[in-house]
Amino acid sequence: MDTTTNSGKAVVTLPSDTQILITREFDAPKHLVFKAWTTPDLIARWWAGRRGTVTSVEVDLRVGGRWRYVMVTNEGFEVAFHGEYREIVPNERLVSTEIFEAVPDDFAVDTLTLTEHEGRTTLTVLVDHSTKEARDMHVESGMEGGLQEALDALAQVVASGLSQERSTR
Amino acid sequence: MARAATTTDAFNAVAEPRRRQILDALAEGEQPVNDLVRLLGVTQPAMSKHLRVLREVGLVQVRDEGRRRVYRLNADRLRPIHEWLQRYEAVWNERLDRLDAVLEDLKEGGTDGHDDEQR
Predict the structure, then answer these.
(1) What value of ipTM does the predicted structure carry?
(2) Do B102 and A158 touch (CB under 8 A)?
(3) Which of A38, A125, A161, A42 is closest to A88 using CA atoms?
(4) Is B66 left (phi over 0), alpha (psi -120 to 50) or beta?
């Protein structure tokens, strides 16, 4: 179905009203991806992207153990997330809760899965919120100035529709 | 009746779950109305109403094929929604580009990570 080459770009879709799914392929075996995902000094190097600097990473990688990441954005705001590990299958699957400390009443359940094929690893992160409103807020929190609340993107449709369209251009 | 005021753009039109199912079905290819009715298990009048809303905002197009009315997705109209998501996607890409760089270092460093399997 997906004949376009995935040039290492993340694809974000909204599989249901409460979920966000992020998918990306890496040219590395899954145990290295898992290591980069769960080792504090490595997390500190990627988690903030270009939006700021990671100032603290705590990882207690066992079921029931806590994690907490803090960054200072380029604008100078401190942003912190924390949660608890619920399920750990080394190099394959990691389920944890995620709480944005600015909105402590809501939490998401994040599921990381790593699938290796011929030395390349497909990473997926499924973010599942308790409500659609919280999910939409999560998506909008990544951007300046959100669109209307009525937004209820159906990304599978969008993605498949647009890729069909692109391939015919 | 479709209330035009609330369905003037793609965002509102896709806020309705049934209409999203219709778009999903059309994403796989064009479909005659009757097939959509059967596929989604809705009544013909309800289907007509949803299709009218989707047509009004340009998300679907219709053509007559003999006696059948065949609907297709107009993916271009989904672009604003796609762009909304793309900005979120960009944030993740920044993050995962960095992760990619970390992985390159790990590969070169020969720290193959197998010693991580403590559990």
Answers:
(1) 0.72
(2) no
(3) A38
(4) left
The reply to whether CATH 1.10.10.10 applies to domain B4-74 is yes
Place of tokens 């209330």: B3
Count each helix (H run) and each strand (E run) in chain A, helices first.
Answer: 4, 8
Per-residue pLDDT of B48-77, as tens digits, reads 999 999 999 889 999 999 989 999 998 888
Read off the tokens for B16: 């309705």
Cβ contacts of A155 on chain B, cutoff 8 Å? 81-82, 85
pTM for the predicted model, two decimal places:
0.64
Interface membership of A145 toward B (CB under 8 Å) = no
Domain parsing of chain B, residue ranges? 4-74, 78-111
Locate tokens 């504090």: which residue? A40
Domain architecture of chain A: domains with CATH: 11-47+84-167 (3.30.530.20)
